[in-house]
Queue: 2 jobs
Job 1
Amino acid sequence: MQDKHVLVYYKDEDRSKFIDKIKYPKTVICVGDNPHKDDIKMDSSYGFPGIFSTWILDNWDNLPEYLITCQSDPDAHVHKMHLAMDSTFTSDWGSLCFGRAIYTQYAFDWARILPMVEVANELGCNFINTHNVSKPIFYFFPGDHFFISRKKILEKGKDFFKKMLFLDNTENFMNFQKTIKFPPFFVSQINKFHPELKNLTYEEKYEKMLGQIPGRNYGYLGWVTEVLFFYLFCDDYVLDKINFAQAAIGNQLYFNTDFTHYKNTFRFYKFPYGQSFDITAINYKLLENDWFDQDCPNYKTWKEALKNNLLDEGRMQGFNAKELLEFYEYVGYKHISL
């Protein structure tokens, strides 16, 4: 049986729904006003990255084989969390959530700009040629529900988690954003997705889109790292493959020897990216195949539950989920997600 420890982020949710049912050793981090006896009270100005990093640094010499992170009410992102936790993990990092999404470099269609590339590079990813055009390159797993191995944590080193903790301070993160040199498409994309800001100056647009969300005093970094955890913790060869593939997207192909004309609609696509979101999504899903032991009885039970959940989603959203499951099997996708 794998040595697992559960790190739970708790504010004021009903503990009987999930926290009280956890059978593994656990740490409950309380950012609300009413911590229970064994909870660890933490400043509510910290988001998940700060809580995650603090726990790891405090327990550096006594890390479990696997750390599982989750919110105190995981149902919004994870289907059957107890089955997910009981599954046998076979990778150094994997997401437990059911949904998937994809963002451009700054998530222009969201409420605030998320500087994914800059934060990723600050934390050691070293993406290249990322700002040649606006492009959807960040495929992510919402909700901060994942497992990570002791091996991967030690591989990243203490300085990595100290830097993440530093950036989760709102003042530090806002100062970090002031050092960013935004690419030429930055303002045009803000104008496209946020026409309500059209009469503001560039400086005012930046302030609106880079500012802290009113009424939320916890770290801004969490929205960025939620997208980045896969990239920060995947194997180096996977990150290299993704890095070179995203670097090719948006490059212009010259087709005469004088280099005076080019077909600017031509795009190179390398795995895992494709000409549509659907192609990119299924390619990314194939990277999940080694996360869980497919022969583990607990995982098999969870997988059946995920299949049934997908069928339910299909009925609610009006798509043929049975055909989608058949397609997953055809292309070799072993896990089940939407």
Note: The chain has a mean pLDDT of 90.
Job 2
Amino acid sequence: MNIIDKSEYYLDYLDKSEELKELNKLIKKDGDTITQGYVPTVLEHNHFVICLKNKITHEIYSFIHFCIRENFFDIPKYIFVNYSYTFIKQRNKGLNKMLRLVLEDACKTNKIQAIISVPFKESNSRTIMDKLGYTNEKDDLYIKYIK
């Protein structure tokens, strides 16, 4: 299944310290005063950053920082979304949804049973997760079980 169906984007991975430092600068420069998130500049062995970039300019439009964890109650292996962000000028294009669908596909391929996310209170992620079938378990802990 080709989740990234828009010809102007491509999926990429960020794992180099200089790329992650630059990403943090871009987040701060973007001016979103609601989240003010941060991505670590050195990723632990089970942490990853995936992003959608413009095919021509290679500009990052949206990204998700996540890690793979084990043993959360009855879930043997799951993805925990640490932080997701779409840059202001690129919002309302379904980019974060596309990235979350990429994660779902990766779960199916790698026998990962769920995706867990705890969005910022003011973020738009709740609406996206509701549309994708996540359940709000408690205290804004959203879980999507993967079949």
Note: Helices lie at 17-30, 95-110, 125-131.
